[in-house]
């Protein structure tokens, strides 16, 4: 419903569109999650996206604040119907129509939000959900697409379902990608869904995590197999390839993706377009979640996307992917692991962590540059809550004091993010007093620096000297953060749900 534009402007738009297509950045998107106690204003985030050349974004709902941030940017947006609405939307067409009216039609105006995809659910067939969404997802998909069609959005906006890679597997007897097939309990629903997606012209969306393959693969997983460089440098492959018929797989991403392609072929949909809904590498919370390894992973992934090359089974199909994710989210569930809160290519406050070739220049590593930081970020005052020096004296033998300290640290870490304190993590080298200070500060900042949040039974004190040490950052809260989000809305990505990644790993 764009208003008519004048000649020069539309010429410019065509020219820009052509340039964008030529450089391939249209293949690159990013996930913007908001499970955080430290949220930047949506307009600041939207500008971070445009400053770094992102043309696509995926969000996990259709939150009004987020949508207002995206309005007018032209960024192609994937909005989502959360899992807890699937039963209602699948069971009642009127409910689907309401959702589309409220969350798609409402933003369909010149200067609104450029919605292109609607994710119906998020990994609804995850093993950990015990089949709770198996019967409602496809009906919800149908209803949403029908509502989009009837509201006149159907040509531009398609409904899809992002699935976890645990919907497919290779049998233990023949663990190669070509043996890929859908899990028995979801094979029927996947076939029904693919038939519908094929008819509506929508892609299937799948989330693929080489980091999790490594994490759950244990010592049997060769580290280099998680990356795209065959063990460092072209032609110097140091890893034993997984040999599958005529194809040698040297990275788990390709093997995983092609296992899906094989599963699709088996049910007659070998040509169904596939979009990678989430792919990335975390930078903290585990000894292998580091900025250096994340840089290596993204360098390979982005070089591949820039080259326009697909996987061995679909060599000419350029990989279209949404990076996971944009910013760190300190309120995510850590059930799968402490790394969950550190998936951002930017810190929570929009500072880049490592160089990336986001413009997809391709070629040598030199193409990677430090992404542009968020502009206009406002912080609360520069002050920190730490263990009081008086309290830090010679109390080693004072059991009551030690108990009080342990209690307080436990309280803080149950309510704020202490995942950087673990072994091999950015703050893993702190002593016990440093640990306590880190925990107190995390809680104090999450509570918006209110005075009462820096007491801890008299053990804590507010200071104005930066308590950070090296890579261990004692952060300061940003202005405008929403109240802490309820744990109840935190989707799980459980170990059980990730067994698929593991199975694929041990090829
Ligand atoms: C639209 O999306 C928002 C955010 O996800 C949700 O709260 C709201 O209930 C949705 N509207 C309808 C009518 O379902
Ligand atoms: C799935 O089943 C397991 C084992 O029966 C149970 O522990 C878990 O809470 C269930 N999860 C859901 C989402 O129902
Ligand atoms: C997929 O859709 C095309 C038309 O778009 C159709 O020709 C084809 O038969 C469909 N494939 C299957 C397996 O249904
Ligand atoms: C795959 O690797 C094997 C050795 O593991 C080698 O003999 C074969 O030539 C390779 N095939 C291709 C297509 O590179
Ligand atoms: C600091 O805290 C982490 C995480 O709670 C813990 O694993 C570590 O042992 C603590 N270090 C000291 C010296 O107390
Ligand atoms: C720590 O984070 C703050 C923002 O919270 C930032 O200004 C500062 O540069 C960071 N320090 C380090 C060492 O990264």
Automatic annotation (TrEMBL):
Domain of life: Eukaryota
Secretion signal span: 1-27
One biological process term in Gene Ontology: defense response
Alphabetized InterPro entries for the sequence: GH, Glyco_hydro_17, Glyco_hydro_17_plant, X8
Residue intervals of the X8 domain: 383-474
Major localization class: membrane
Localization, UniProt: Cell membrane
Membrane topology of the entry: Lipid-anchor; GPI-anchor
A Gene Ontology molecular function term of the record: glucan endo-1,3-beta-D-glucosidase activity
Listed EC numbers: 3.2.1.39
GO annotations of cellular component type: plasma membrane; side of membrane
Keywords, ordered alphabetically: Cell membrane, Disulfide bond, Glycoprotein, Glycosidase, GPI-anchor, Hydrolase, Lipoprotein, Membrane, Plant defense, Signal
PANTHER family (UniProt xref): GLUCAN ENDO-1,3-BETA-GLUCOSIDASE BG1-RELATED-RELATED (PTHR32227)
Protein name (database record): glucan endo-1,3-beta-D-glucosidase
């Amino acid at each position: 419903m764009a208003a008519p534009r004048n000649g020069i402007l539309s010429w410019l738009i065509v020219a820009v569109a052509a340039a964008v297509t030529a450089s391939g950045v249209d293949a690159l998107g990013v996930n913007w999650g908001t499970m955080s106690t430290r949220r930047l204003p949506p307009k600041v985030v939207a500008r971070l996206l445009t400053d770094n050349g992102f043309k696509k974004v995926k969000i996990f709902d259709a939150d009004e604040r987020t949508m207002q941030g995206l309005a007018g940017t032209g960024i192609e947006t994937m909005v989502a119907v959360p899992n807890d609405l699937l039963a209602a939307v699948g069971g009642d067409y009127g409910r689907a129509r309401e959702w589309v009216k409220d969350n798609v039609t409402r933003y369909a105006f010149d200067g609104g939000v450029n919605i292109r995809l609607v994710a119906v659910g998020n990994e609804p067939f995850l093993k950990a959900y015990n089949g709770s969404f198996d019967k409602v997802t496809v009906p919800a998909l149908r209803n949403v697409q029908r509502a989009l069609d009837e509201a006149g959005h159907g040509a531009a906006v398609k409904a899809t379902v992002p699935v976890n890679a645990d919907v497919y597997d290779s049998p233990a007897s023949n663990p190669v990608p070509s043996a890929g097939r859908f899990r028995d309990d979801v094979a029927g629903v996947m076939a029904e869904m693919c038939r519908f997606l094929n008819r509506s012209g929508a892609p299937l969306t799948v989330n693929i995590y080489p980091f999790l393959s490594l994490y759950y693969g244990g010592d049997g997983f060769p580290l280099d197999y998680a990356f795209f460089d065959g063990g460092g440098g072209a032609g110097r492959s140091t890893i034993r390839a997984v040999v599958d018929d005529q194809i040698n797989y040297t990275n788990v991403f390709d093997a995983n993706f092609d296992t899906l392609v094989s599963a699709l072929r088996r049910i007659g949909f070998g040509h169904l377009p596939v979009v990678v809904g989430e792919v990335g590498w975390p930078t903290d919370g585990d000894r292998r979640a580091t900025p250096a390894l994340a840089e290596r992973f993204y360098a390979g992934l982005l070089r591949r996307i820039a080259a326009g090359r697909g996987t061995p089974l679909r060599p000419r199909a350029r990989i279209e992917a949404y990076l996971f994710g944009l910013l760190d989210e300190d309120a995510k569930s850590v059930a799968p692991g402490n790394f969950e809160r550190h998936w951002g290519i930017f810190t929570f406050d929009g500072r880049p962590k490592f160089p990336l070739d986001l413009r997809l220049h391709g070629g040598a590593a030199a193409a990677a540059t430090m992404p542009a930081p968020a502009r206009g970020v406002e912080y609360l005052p520069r002050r920190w809550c730490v263990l009081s020096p008086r309290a830090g004296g010679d109390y080693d033998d004072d059991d009551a004091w030690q108990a009080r300290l342990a209690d307080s640290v436990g309280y803080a870490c149950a309510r704020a993010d202490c995942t950087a304190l673990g072994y091999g993590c950015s703050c893993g080298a702190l002593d016990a007093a440093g640990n306590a200070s880190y925990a107190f500060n995390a809680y104090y900042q999450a509570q918006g620096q209110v005075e009462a949040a820096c007491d801890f039974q008299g053990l804590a004190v507010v200071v104005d000297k930066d308590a950070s040490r090296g890579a261990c950052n004692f952060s300061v809260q940003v202005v405008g953060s929403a109240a802490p989000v309820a744990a109840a809305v935190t989707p799980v990505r459980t170990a059980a749900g990730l067994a698929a990644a593991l199975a694929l790993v041990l090829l």
